[in-house]
Specification:
Blueprint (H helix, E strand, L loop, with lengths): L3 H6 L10 H27 L4 E5 L7 E4 L3 E5 L5 E6 L9 H28 L4 H24 L7 H4 L3 E5 L1 H22 L28 H8 L12 H11 L4 H6 L1
Antiparallel strand pairs: 1-2, 1-5, 3-4
Helix pairs in contact: 2-3, 2-6, 3-4, 4-6
Protein name: Transmembrane protein
Keywords: Membrane, Transmembrane, Transmembrane helix
Organism: Phaeodactylum tricornutum (strain CCAP 1055/1)
């Protein structure tokens, strides 16, 4: 029975999924989920609707939205027009800043996994490089899952604990909740799925058939034939029967009559 730690730190090339077709499907699923999770992480950090602060006063219909790094600008009709970043001295402490830190960690780790997975699936051809880099993906994705989950400590900020107010998830927080599910599935897949055996785009360069040059800067004819491969190799020489008979006469003079009859 392979434990989680052994599968995480394993550098063996023995496939965990036995069917190659299932391996390929899982690897392309990893690529797709990495794209989705990376986009969700950017939405979580950049949008200004992570938290909705609603007043308990029935006579008040004001809804205040906050983002992790920005606040919304409202129109006269109280519609969100855009987002602006916080001031450097926004005065927020405690859980809110902790949630910010975890969100940064989320973006960094999922971005690393995003770059590596795209490189392995599309461009990186060296087998050993893919194995080593895939090990880093197996570390980054679970860490991103934990960081995304801990981002919700922002709801423990002081404004949410004040009397007369309550906080609810905004649009960016709902995306973050979906990203928790995506990252969980992705973390399981990168653990049980082996590193891609080949990339989508193959760039093959064969430098073994380059003929060496002489002092004049030109390759000799024999070296060129050897460098050009099997196509330009000269055909094997045919054996001459007369030479064979002559050699046999010299070795066995008593059997000359028999050889002449042949």
């Amino acid at each position: 029975m392979v434990t989680f730690g052994e599968r995480l730190l394993s550098s063996e090339d023995e496939p965990y999924l036995k069917d190659p077709i299932n391996q390929m499907k899982s690897q392309w699923t990893v690529l797709l989920l990495t794209w989705i999770s990376w986009i969700f992480a950017l939405v979580t950090v950049t949008r200004c609707t992570f938290i909705k602060i609603v007043s308990d006063d029935e006579s008040s219909s004001d809804i205040k939205s906050l983002g992790l790094f920005s606040v919304p600008i409202y129109t006269a009709d109280k519609d969100i027009r855009g987002c602006v970043s916080y001031e450097s001295n926004d005065g927020r402490t405690g859980g809110f800043k902790a949630g910010r830190a975890f969100s940064i960690f989320l973006v960094v780790t999922i971005s690393i996994a995003f770059v590596i997975v795209n490189g392995m699936m599309l461009f990186i051809q060296t087998h050993m490089t893919r194995r080593l880099m895939y090990l880093l993906v197996r570390v980054c994705v679970p860490v991103a899952f934990i960081a995304n989950t801990l981002t919700f400590v922002t709801f423990s900020m002081e404004e949410c604990s004040e009397k007369g107010t309550k906080c609810s998830p905004g649009g960016a927080a709902i995306v973050a909740i979906l990203n928790v599910l995506v990252l969980f599935i992705l973390a399981v897949l990168v653990i049980v799925t082996p590193a891609p055996s080949q990339c989508a785009f193959q760039f093959v360069y064969d430098f073994t058939k380059v003929a060496p040059r002489d002092h004049s800067g030109q390759s000799s004819s024999s070296e060129q034939k050897h460098a050009q491969g099997d196509i330009y190799r000269s055909p094997p020489k045919k054996k001459n029967k007369k030479n064979i008979f002559r050699k046999r006469r010299e070795e066995n003079p008593e059997n000359q009559d028999d050889l002449e009859q042949i």
